[in-house]
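*** Protein under study ***
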Amino acid sequence: MNEMYTIYVHFPCAEDYMDKAVQLEIQMPFVPRIGDCLFIDPQDYKHLERKVEQTEALKKRYKRWIYGGQRCSFDDASIVIAVVWNNNDSTIHIELGENIGEERD
């Protein structure tokens, strides 16, 4: 039986690197690498988009993901742009963006 890793998925934002306020927990049979393309079912992160839309502070931090002034969408975030392992609590975190080397807004 393959071991499954718990991965915390984050999206780039203006103020916080690997922002825990907007993260998704997933299980994977491997640890993704920078440049890997991951397709996560949009239904798995819709609650995070709604959370951003309903919280003014998060709207400001995630402004690059706000479309039409109101609607948050992480649909374009599919490329792993960062991988972090935290040895304090043995967690693995990844950040999904649109392309490798993108700027943080």
In short: The chain has two helices and six strands. The chain has a mean pLDDT of 91.
